[in-house]
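Here is one chain, start to finish.
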Amino acid sequence: MSKIKLTNIGSIATYNSYSKTIDTIKDSDILINDGLIEKIENNIDGDYEIFDCQNRLITPGFVDPHTHPVFHQGREEEFGLRVQGATYQEIAEKGGGINSSINGVRNASTDELTQVVKHRMDRFLKLGTTTIEAKSGYGLNVESELKSLNVLDLVNQNHAIDIIPTFLGAHAFPPEYENDHDGYIDLICNEMIPAVAEQGIAKYCDIFCEKGYFSVTQAKRILTTAKKHGLLPRLHADEFEDSGAAELAAELGAVSADHLMAVSKVGIKKLANANVTATLLPGTTYFLGSTNYAPVKKLISAGVTIALATDYNPGSCHIQSMPFIISLACIYLGMSVEDALMAATYNSTSTLNLENEIGSIEVGKKADLVIWDLEKLIEIPYNVTDVPIMKVMKSGKFIN
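Its structure:
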């Protein structure tokens, strides 16, 4: 791969590993060699391919650490029901929600799912996301969960975006186990997890720990089993009510506890003490028409690291845009634009064990970059739903 120099950069906004904050760098070029950042200096000399950034802003590519992209069809009819006043829980109780996506995944071929997931990855990249965590969880039997993970692997091998796969067999109880929850947990622990580990694709195991889904006791058994098979734990925690899931995340040393709209003071303290990242999903609160956003200021005051993610899925949050998530974080969580950018880039890498490779514009890291058709960082949330991106670069290559 030839070297390329990005020049005439207006400013670079990125996490700085030394200052531990977002820094703004001016009067510098970026030299990229074989997909990695080699130099960040003023007036880099040499015979390189040159790209003129036209005095615009550059940030790291976004790292989205919570997505559910392996589904066959959307659930737009549920959106209509919510507009009429139905809650997420009411829709689920009537056969909607997670379980309504099962037949689509079970009946679709690997090729069919691969094509729709590839299309979704195309859009993620166009919106500036260069790395995502992606979950299974809409098959909910051994065959379909393995198929979902295989789809993620196939797309990852043939797409510019980097996909970090997570097994989420404990997303809901499928219809055939509606009256036999213990039987489904036995299936997850005795068959699914060993098969997933043998397949060798998933790096993490997640669980929807919430009233009406999986209890703390059930979650502990599943995640403890997953750890024994080499899958690292992460949790959907305390989304609708305080279930004690944040405390379980701390106890198990999870890489991330996600949602946390109803997290308790005790849960916050334990997350901080155990150094568990809080991945917040303001798009879900917004999409569900709720006003109960995660208590980000309490989390930050306690010393909890904050990551931001889309929670892209077919039902409760059909949003792929991390710039829009940053807008929501600034408007509804009260985060500064600097904190929101850090949460959407560098902080997210800590939940994927990739902090030494991506998430910031620093020498030695992958050249995963967004060149904006903007001049100042504050303009990203200011534009809200518009995404004024000039170019996206993944591993040193422009993808648009």
